[in-house]
Amino acid sequence: MTKRRVFSAIAVLILMLSCALPAFAADAPTVEAKSMILIERNSGDVLAEQSADDMVYPASMTKVMTCLLALENLRLSDSVTVSETALADLDESGSSADLLPGETLTVEQLLYCMMLSSANEACNVAAEAVSGDIDTFIALMNTRASQLGCTGTHFANTHGLHDEDHYTTARDLSKIALEALKNPEFRKIVSTAKYTVPPTNLSGERHLSTTNRMIVNSESNPYYDKRVSGVKTGFTTPAGRCLIACAEDGPLSLLSVICGCDTVILESGDLEFRSFPETKKLLDWAFSSFTYDVVLTTLYPIAEIPVSHAAGANYVSLAPKNELKSLLPIDYDSEKLTYQTALISEGGVSAPITAGDVLGSVTVSYGGKELGSTDLVAIASIERATLWDYLSPAKSGAVGLLRTVLLIFAILLVAAIVYTVIARIRKKKNKARRSRR
Question: What are phi and psi of 168, to 5 degrees?
Fold first, then answer.
């Protein structure tokens, strides 16, 4: 490859990165993981990424897609029955809620088993309830992934047990998770630390605990973070320790995806799952570096446009149609926000004008990055002038002078007409007298 091609490739890469990340992004910390991506959910901005398009194994993070499809196709109150096929070909050492053949429970209870205990058999039960059989459901998983814009994902099972043909990327997992988080029932389930499944026809109560230790408020839990409200862990030996987490603090709402972290043996002999502290590292950095703030409000006009043929004011003030919020550095200077307005006509518009009419647009930028745009609308209505408006007592300025001139002209015109009519009448009378003589 020539030097020119090398430099061109580097330039393209730099351009791609600059488009993906905010222009004012601080340096993100490096995480000990195969790949990761961090997204601000309100704006959709990618705050940080690391090998986000590399192939990884999703392990039990697969269950986010399975749960999403169950919520999209089943009612929580529906009853489902565990079949023999749902329990077949599962790794006995894998996560389970010990569901039994012939056992009946609700979809809601099944999803808590799936997302808290990470029960593999619960995924197959949901698949059969949605599609009739597991293979058809897996095809639906791949179709839904494609619909969400996933380009590096292929599902081969419903639960995430290792399969060489079952893979994804951190970026694709973020797309699936963001879609799932739109569902309030999904958010409720994945933010629950403990749940009790009531007795069924074949079992007593089941007490479930989440595998996501970042939402477990316990003095003995070093991973608890009150900002975190979900979503799902994952682990197989090939996949490593994985975690999708969502967190809120103040105006920011974050989604973090970390894949392929290590399991470390501490001096105490305890195991440390590095996916938790590495996620916390990312969250701490983002919450201390960014804010999500209003950059444009509908409450105040920011421009005006001349109005001709108006019965009242000869201009109308314009305000933003929509409020705009944007991701910004936490220490940003509001005085450095720039606003570029564009009117539909620099020469102005003609009355009548109705409040809310779109008469321009405004674009907000900060630090060379465009933050957003919205329409500019009239804040008041203006009637079109009638002849009487032009003949009414004069106002100050050019409009007043024009009305004065028009008033004088009108008086002279009326006088001329009256004079002409009287002259014609007199002429006719004089002519009649001469005829009689």
Answer: -160, -165
